[in-house]
Amino acid sequence: MAGTDAVDGDGGATQERRGTSGLIDRVRASAREVAERHALPICAAGTVLLLLAIFYYPVATVFRESVVVDGRATLSVFWAVLADPFYFGELARVLTGTPPSVVLDSLLSGDPRLGVVGFTAYQAALSSVASVALGLPAAYLLSRYEFPGRRTLRSLTILPFVLPSIMVAVGFVATFGQNGTLNTVLGALGLGQVDLLFSLEAVVVAHAFYNAPLVARVTTAAWESVDASAVETARSLGASPTRAFCDVVAPQIYPAVVLGTVLTFVFTFGTFPIVLALGGFELATVEVFVYRLVRDLEYAEAAALALVELGISLALLYAYLRYEARHTVAAEGIRPLPRRPLRPPSLSVRELAPRVGLALYVVVALAVFVAPIASMVYASLTGPTGPTLAHYEFLLERQVSGASFQVQPWDAVRNSLLFAGAALAVALPMGVVVAVLTTRRYRGRKVLDAVAMAPLAVSGIVVGLGLLRGLVFGVEVGGTRVAVGGALAIVAAHAVAGYPFVVRTVAPGLAGLDRSLVESARALGASRARVLADIELPLVWPAVVAGAAFAVAISIGEFSATVVLASGTSQFTMPIAIERFIGRRLGPATAMGVVLLVVTSASFLVIDHLGGETDAF
Question: Which of 367, 437, 508, 509 is the right S-S partner for 540, CB 3.0 to 4.6 Å?
Answer without folding.
Answer: 509
